[in-house]
Amino acid sequence: MVHPVPRAPKRNPLLPPTGSSAMPAPQNAPSQLPTVEEVSAGGVVVEVHDGVPRVAIIARVNRGGRLEWCLPKGHPEGQESHAEAAVREIEEETGIGGEILAPLGSIDYWFTVSGHRVHKTVHHFLLRATGGFLTIENDPDHEAVDVAWVPLDELARKLSFPNERRITDLARELLPEHFQPWL
Fold first, then answer.
1. 155: alpha, beta or left, given left = phi > 0 and alpha = psi -120 to 50?
2. What is the pTM of this model?
3. CA 58, CA 148: separation in Å to the nearest integer?
4. Where exactly are the structural domains of the chain?
5. What average pLDDT does the chain have?
6. In the chain, which residue ranges form alpha helices assigned H by DSSP?
7. Other beta carbons within 10 Å of 140
8. Cα gap 3→177, rounded to integer Å
9. Distance CA 58, CA 55 (A)
């Protein structure tokens, strides 16, 4: 009679082998790919319509070809400050001019594209809409494929990225301070 040879239990490849002192590589371990640093600025531009705050957001096709709804943002040009770049980029991508009311903080993340890793930092601001109308026609990079006013209470369901939803939560906390006469 042939008895099957017992097999070792499957192990999680992310954990070190039993009896080994090896530890898995940390998430921020150096990569074999070259790294590029990118900086952008943008934010949450709010208008109050019939007592309801709403935010202008854009839809774009990401580098992987998927449609995603996000806050408008882009790279500073020349000697622009982050705040100046945010105002310009929001107006270019949404058609809405804005006045900065408060910084909302920065987020950073990593992704890989075209044989290199990108470490991107995005600086966000809360802005009050000062004029204009929704359009993507002024976006020089043609990244925005759609634009919409979304009520602040519906924003979490519309935005594609959790980190941007957290930024809009910060904006919501600051709204009463900056929009009291309009709410």
1. alpha
2. 0.78
3. 6
4. 35-179
5. 84
6. 82-94, 155-158, 162-179
7. 8
8. 75
9. 10
153, two tokens: 């209470």
Q: Look at the block and give the residue holding tokens 């998430």.
A: 27
Three-state DSSP state, 32: coil
Helices in 15-154 by DSSP H: which ranges? 82-94
Residue 3, pLDDT score: 41
pLDDT at position 111 is: 85
CA distances from 91 to 82, 108, 121 (A): 14, 23, 20
Q: Report pLDDT digits (tens) over 34-93.
A: 999 999 999 999 999 998 999 999 999 987 899 999 999 999 999 999 999 999 999 999
Distance of alpha carbon 135 from alpha carbon 150, whole angstroms = 14
Distance CA 156, CA 158 (A): 6
According to CATH, what is the number of the domain 35-179? Answer: 3.90.79.10
Tokens of 179: 């929009």
Task: Count other C-beta atoms under 10 Å from residue 159's C-beta.
Answer: 21
For the chain, the straight-line distance linking the first and the last C-alpha, in angstroms and rounded, comes to 83
Three-state SS at 153: helix
Q: What is the pLDDT of residue 176?
A: 83
